[in-house]
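F.,

This is the one I mentioned.
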């Protein structure tokens, strides 16, 4: 499934990590963001591209964010406030900040609380798009903690048996530290496919698999199809149809609404009129491993588990067994050396934008 969304080789233009970070941060700062927010936002985007998650990286999201800032839908200088707090918990009003920036502050607070009391949980409302939520879970894993982040946003996903959408793609991510093995990172939408994959599929002319979308009357489309007009389709919960387990994806999506929306004191998206920008309500948690068990023993057991998974005999037609985060970690190692592939159309956008903002052009490899 990953290859389905890769940039075709004939359309690839490679850039180095350092050049891409510089260009993205320069753009964020030029349109009026603080240096810290620009740096945090750049890190979330470029890390997604390094891990091969193009749907949530620079290619798909940067132009959207720039447009939202320039249109005034997102706040360039937010007054982010803690509206309720205890030693282990907090609720944050992000004041229409872009989520990939405000989310860094929220997870840092959760990590700090976990360091003090063992577990830190922070909810956040009134933010923009959160990007690849696994980034925030990994922040905790890099501090020897188990990290979790989930986000409720939008109303584009049908409930099982429904003909009108009620939920967002509502992704859930969990990351864990390890020792010698690549950290485990599970990051998945509770919809059958992430919404950004539909945009990427249109860009690279890819087909959608059976059970990813429904027709306008809510009937699951159970054969491969191409997106012609997104307004003609609704997205389905994970599983696609009831027979394939869509009630499970639907249930997980509801749980994200509870943790992100209701726990932060905000309304679920289905109960409000969605503005031109889609507000996110998020849940961040950090579990300090050392508060539960010896960290060295934990990492050894984690490594042993991951090695066992990797050594599982593969089924016919498959080369090996993976675990969540392994292929992305391998892709990151490759791209740090060989560069990040971007679609030539994305390079054209960079050229136009840097010229308009009177910035240095993105340097190519």
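My design for it:
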């Amino acid at each position: 499934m990953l290859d389905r969304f890769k940039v075709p080789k004939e359309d690839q233009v490679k850039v180095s990590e350092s050049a891409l970070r510089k260009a993205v941060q320069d753009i964020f700062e030029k349109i009026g963001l603080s240096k810290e927010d620009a740096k945090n936002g750049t890190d979330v985007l470029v890390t997604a591209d390094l891990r091969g998650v193009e749907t949530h990286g620079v290619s798909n999201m940067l132009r959207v964010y720039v447009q939202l800032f320039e249109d005034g839908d997102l706040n360039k200088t937010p007054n982010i406030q803690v509206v309720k707090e205890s030693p282990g918990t907090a609720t944050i009003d992000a004041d229409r900040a872009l989520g990939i920036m405000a989310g860094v502050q929220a997870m840092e607070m959760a990590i700090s609380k976990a360091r003090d009391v063992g577990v830190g949980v922070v909810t956040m409302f009134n933010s923009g798009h959160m990007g690849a939520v696994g980034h925030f879970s990994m922040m905790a894993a890099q501090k020897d903690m188990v990290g979790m982040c989930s986000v409720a946003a939008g109303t584009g996903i049908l409930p099982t048996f429904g003909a009108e959408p009620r939920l967002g793609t509502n992704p859930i991510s969990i990351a864990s530290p390890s020792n010698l093995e690549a950290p485990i990172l599970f990051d998945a939408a509770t919809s059958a496919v992430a919404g950004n994959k539909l945009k990427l599929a249109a860009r690279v002319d890819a087909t959608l698999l059976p059970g990813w979308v429904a027709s306008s009357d809510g009937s699951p489309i159970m054969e491969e199809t191409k997106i012609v007009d997104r307004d003609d389709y609704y997205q389905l919960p994970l599983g696609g149809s009831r027979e394939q387990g869509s009630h499970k994806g639907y249930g997980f999506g509801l749980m994200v609404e509870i943790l992100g929306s209701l726990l932060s004191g905000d309304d679920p998206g289905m109960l409000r009129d969605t503005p031109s920008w889609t507000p996110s309500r998020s849940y961040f948690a950090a579990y300090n491993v050392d508060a539960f068990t010896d960290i060295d023993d934990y990492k050894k057991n984690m490594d042993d588990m991951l090695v066992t998974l990797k050594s599982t005999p593969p089924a016919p037609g498959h080369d090996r067994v993976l675990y969540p985060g392994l292929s992305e970690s391998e892709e990151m190692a490759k791209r740090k050396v060989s560069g990040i592939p971007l679609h030539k159309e994305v390079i054209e956008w960079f050229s136009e934008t840097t010229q308009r903002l009177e910035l240095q052009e993105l340097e190519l490899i």
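The radius of gyration is 20 Å.

Talk soon.
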